[in-house]
């Protein structure tokens, strides 16, 4: 598959074999791929090339992956997929908190990683749509411009945070389980992705939208079931 506009992907991992395999699979799919073996080299490439997506190993020499993610999020909304070892669950949760779009656990299937890349790129660059603006008592969600305002103030959101909020807001008061949200918002499933991904993103949305996160106004929890949007 050759992409009409070739997306630029940066692969950051200190293991040459991992980089070689990932680069080969992505290139075969038609992506333009560059690589870096250290954190400092990765930061330089991100600054110079501004890639469309970064595949980022958490454990890196010089500058670790989570520190790189923090630096990226200060200036960019570049989609980031973390590569983590199975024993690094706290890092995965922290990575999502810091703004990672997805993560893949080592050892991984290169085909699965390519599927995740395709999915994240599709979600982060949605085609323009004639969707209406959603408005609720001070909260305004402009789906075409992908802008959220609360009481007139712009609320900065990652692509995934926006997608989750817009999906819930399109069906006010309807309860969605974490599995349903993984399917519809992440184009994924619990077989591939930890449902805690949803929990982390809901928590991040509440931080940005709620004056009282313990008694949320907009996104409420239905215990034992899932989440719903309150208009």
Verbal overview:
It is a single chain. With 231 residues, the chain is α/β, with parallel strands linked by helices. It folds into two domains: 8-124, Rossmann fold (3-Layer(aba) Sandwich); 133-229, Arc Repressor Mutant, subunit A, CATH 1.10.10.10. It is built from eight helices and eleven strands. The strands form three sheets. It has a five-stranded parallel beta sheet with strand order 2-1-3-4-5, with helices on both faces. Strand 10 (219-222) and strand 11 form a beta hairpin. The radius of gyration is 18 Å and the shape is globular. The model has no long low-confidence stretch (mean pLDDT 88).
**How much helical structure, as a percent, in the residues?**
40-55%
H/E series, N to C? EHEHEHEHEHEEEEHHHEE
Low-confidence stretches: none
Structure class: alpha/beta
Q: How many distinct helices?
A: 8
The end-to-end distance, rounded to whole angstroms, is 42 Å
The CATH architecture category of the largest domain equals 3-Layer(aba) Sandwich
CATH topology of the largest domain: Rossmann fold
Give the tally of structural domains. 2
Widest sheet: strand ordering: 2-1-3-4-5
Please outline the major beta sheet. Answer: 5 strands, parallel
Give the overall average pLDDT: 88
